[in-house]
Amino acid sequence: MQVQPHILVVDDDREIRTLLGRYLDGQGFRVSVAADRRECEQKLGAGQFDLLVLDVMLPDGSGLDICSGLRDRKPHMPVILLTALKEDVDRIIGLELGADDYLGKPFNPRELTARIRAVLRRSSPEDAPVAPRPRVYRFAGYRLEPDTRKVTDAHGVAVDLTGAEFDLLQVFLDRPGRLLSRDQLLDLTQGRERDPLDRSVDVLMSRLRRKFTETGDGPLFKTVRNGGYQLTARVETVEDHA
Q1: Which cellular component, as a GO term, is one annotated location (predicted)?
Q2: Which overall architecture, per CATH, does domain 6-123 show?
Q3: How far is the C-alpha of 151 from the C-alpha of 166, rounded, in Å?
Q4: Is residue 10 scored above 90 in pLDDT?
Q5: Could you give the 3-state DSSP secondary structure of residue 92?
Q6: How far out from the chain centre does Cα 86 lie?
């Protein structure tokens, strides 16, 4: 029997909590809810969750602070932020803090469900078909293992990446040397079209650049004005015999 993913929904609006609890339960998820930061922290400390749906504005604090704290305590827990439709700054800060996706209010529960499923697929490699000898990518002294979603540097030290960062990096490794537009990157990583004001790809690229040092030939990623981004390093794909 397949285990139901456990979702924690944090929102101070009782109507939204009730609606999402019922709807997500009907979609095959196990759902817990919290009305504020205090209750959220209590439930995170007492239970295990597969994904957090988190409102940015809470009566006793900011959802952004919760998101920031999770990066240290539960770095692999996916987070989807709920933000006011016009609060672009909160969305950008949330992505910089490690959120995997965001959705502006008001929203359709069906769209949130689709986002949840997409994020869970990206963060659950064990559900993917297992190849006899999984491929390994080598680039600029780094090593990426798709089966374990692990990246290490030349000294074997792990590079800590969020699910969204890992997916974006692998898109580049699958297409070495290709110039990829923001629209292409968003479609390939999240399966959705980009809003004209959507800066999520730029934020993720900024985070990747901070985590990967320059190669001897310069920056690992190149920005092409009005074009997009390009991975400059040579990529080798080998079979993992380890």
Answers
A1: protein-DNA complex
A2: 3-Layer(aba) Sandwich (3.40)
A3: 8
A4: yes
A5: helix
A6: 21
Distance CA 41, CA 58 (A): 13
Distance CA 178, CA 144 (A): 19
Amino acid, single-letter form, for residue 212: F
User: Phi, psi (5° rounding) for residue 83?
Assistant: -130, 155
Query: How far, in Å, CA of 131 to CA of 127, rounded?
Result: 12
pLDDT tens-digit series, residues 33-88? 999 999 999 999 888 899 999 999 899 988 888 888 887 778 778 999 988 755 66
Per DSSP, what are the bridge partners of residue 238? 136
Residues 6+ apart with CB under 8 A from 135: 146, 237, 238, 239, 240
Tell me the helix, strand and coil percentages in the chain, rounded to 5.
40, 25, 35
DSSP 8-state symbol, 125: G
10: region left, alpha or beta (phi > 0 left; psi from -120 to 50 alpha) = beta
Q: What SS3 state is found at 183?
A: helix
Across the beta sheet with 6-10, the strand order is 30-34, 6-10, 51-55, 79-84, 101-105
Residue 212's beta-bridge partner residues? none
Q: Where are the domains of the chain?
A: 6-123, 135-239
